[in-house]
Amino acid sequence: MLPTEPLPEFTDAYERFEAAYVQTEEDDLSSTRLEIEETYFASELLSVNSWEEARSKLNPTSVMKIAALWAEGQLAITTTQELLSNTQEEPQRLAEVRRLSDLCQQYEYAEEGKGEDLLVTEPLKNLAANFQDELPRVVCIGAKGAGKTFNYIHLSRFKYWEIFFARIDKIGLESDKTAYIFPLLQSGKLKDNARNVINEARSEVRKALGNSVTEFIPSECVDRIKKAISEQNWSEPEWTQFWVGEIARAIGINLDQPQSLASINRELKDRSLRIIFLFDGLEDIFFNIASSSQEKTALRS
């Protein structure tokens, strides 16, 4: 049995143990985060080698009895508090559920273009980390619903690569906004909100190039691709020339001479511009990619 007056060593250990669990300043300073209960000394608990052994040795001691009484008291307190607060909290909880439901609906379908916040996933972190000093050249693959169109729309919403980079790293925008994001091909299933986001990104590039540049119309680009697939039997270099021509056409670079990516880069460099082109919705154009050698060649190029 515990002595009437605890030993000084016990009192000192008790006080130091309790002091280690003092509440933070925002909470009640008069209480601790730890409740300490005193029990009779049990020598059999000095050596415990496994969870099963601990359970068997605890059962006959006063530790289990005191722990059971403490647990019953906590349950009674919790039950009483819940009964008192349920009536007041029910409307608040329903409101929170509705807000969560509304938020989830905004992000359910990427094509809606409603959710404006970006979930920073590990692949997006890697994308930003791997292309800090140069423009990205990336193929994004994944099953339906993996987030390809979602990321495409959000990159378009940022309009500049530097803003995307700052958002991922959660830092202030330290560099100039010089790398524009231009959505070229897009999904055919986009709704009005998503289309508006994408068109705003394209308009930003047009302003940088000069408003004399003809407005890019994605449906016309898709028609030219489909026509080439159905009417031409191009080699890979010929398809490469076609894609380069579409990029040049989109940003108003002269099409009277054969274009190459190097010539496009030179012209953009002369204007102190950098542009990242986004492609999405390929499945809406290349329906027979599994069986058509022409579609495979077009994509490889």
SSE layout and pairing:
Elements (H helix, E strand, L loop, with lengths): L7 H12 L31 H8 L3 H47 L13 H9 L17 H11 L2 H9 L9 E7 L6 H18 L8 H14 L4 H15 L10 H10 L3 E6 L13 H8 L1
Parallel strand pairs: 1-2
Helix pairs in contact: 5-7
Task: Provide an overview of this structure.
This protein is mainly α and 301 residues long. It has 3 domains: 1-36; 49-107; 113-300, no CATH class. It has helices at 8-19, 51-58, 62-108, 122-130, 148-158, 161-169, 192-209, 218-231, 236-250, 261-270, 293-300, and strands spanning 179-185, 274-279. The protein has a two-stranded parallel ribbon. α5 (148-158) packs across α7. 14% of the residues are buried.
Write a brief caption for the model.
With 301 residues, this protein is mainly alpha-helical. Helix content is 53%, strand content 4%. The chain is elongated and about 100 Å long.
